[in-house]
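> call design_seq(struct)
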């Protein structure tokens, strides 16, 4: 638990100064999934089964 006045090192601050732990993780995860989809589309890869991307 963080001490009063100090945020844990993993938290991200929002515009109004509140902590948003995990926001950076969520954004980087969505970016990674989006990049995988982009690479697959550009390479014309055709899977044998349907792929579903969820972020």
């Amino acid at each position: 638990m963080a001490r009063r006045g100090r945020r844990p090192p993993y938290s991200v601050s929002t515009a109004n100064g509140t902590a948003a732990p995990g926001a950076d993780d969520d954004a980087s995860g969505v970016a990674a999934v989006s990049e995988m989809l982009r690479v697959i589309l550009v390479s014309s890869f055709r899977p044998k089964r349907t792929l579903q991307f969820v972020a």
